[in-house]
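#help-structures
NK: newbie question, is this the right format to request a structure? protein is VWA1 protein
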Amino acid sequence: NRLHATDVTSSSFRLVWPQLLSQDSGFYSLQYGPGGDPAARSTLQVPGAQSSLVLTHLAPGTTYEVALIPESNVHYFPPQRTRVTTLPEEISPVQVLISDSGPHSFQVSWAPVLDSVATYQVLYGPLPGNSAKLLQVDGSHNSTLVEHLAPNTTYLVTVTAIYRSGKEKSLSAKACTLEGEQGQ
């Protein structure tokens, strides 16, 4: 029954510890930061009645060293320490799929869909050539229909995830439209 972490994500975790203090007997000093970098440590004061706390805005794939120091005016409690490693950053898209190809349209879908993505941009244009068109897709969606295409043509499709943080990740796939009906 010691200081430990639960609900670990790529940017947060919850710290849980035994109730050593009460509201009246002191407070906790919580120090945390990436391992091996004392300069990057943060210190929080936590009321004595509290026995858990969620730390947010953390770096993904990073090991944090956490020290909980009970500051009691009644008893001496030794500091409790733990190390917590955040999950690696999920990235999107890691796959782009083309389906339902017709002479004038195809479906583009991608995965995974992450909360951290604000919007997707789907850029498509015939190969070879540089006449690409752009579709904006809400970050909660994972597919879109691309229409008004030329038959029997190879298109380059690039899906770009635009993260809420401003970062971008792109992935491309090729798509071929079917031959049109003769005599149209």
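mod (FA): yep, format's fine, and the tokens are attached above. The chain has no helices and 14 strands.
NK: thank you!
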